[in-house]
Amino acid sequence: MKKIVLATTLLAATFAFANPYAACVACHGANGEKVALGKSKIIKDLTKAEFVAALKGYQDGTYGGPMKGMMTGQVKGMSEATMQELADKIVK
């Protein structure tokens, strides 16, 4: 199981540098409809403000439960503009 999580993390991180949306899709699904690795919230159900606040919280270490370690790496260095673009794409 640890190998699967590690492989998923590395794959998602690789995509994140090229396309942050691809990193989201890898775990959360194309429309944010999945519970990532069986532990996350369904992100499409968040408001855009909640989504961006969660990303900022992961970035500064003030948000997150079991996925905190993985998500911190995903949002490291992500700009607020990118966070908003992701919110616009995923949260309807």
UniProtKB/TrEMBL annotation:
Domain Cytochrome c span(s) in chain numbering: 6-92
Listed EC numbers: 5.1.1.3
Signal sequence annotation: 1-18
Keyword match Metal-binding: yes
Swiss-Prot/TrEMBL keywords: Heme, Iron, Isomerase, Metal-binding, Signal
One protein family per Pfam: Cytochrom_C
GO function term, MF aspect, one: heme binding
Name the record gives this protein: Cytochrome C
Protein source organism: Aliarcobacter trophiarum LMG 25534
Lineage of source species: Bacteria, Pseudomonadati, Campylobacterota, Epsilonproteobacteria, Campylobacterales
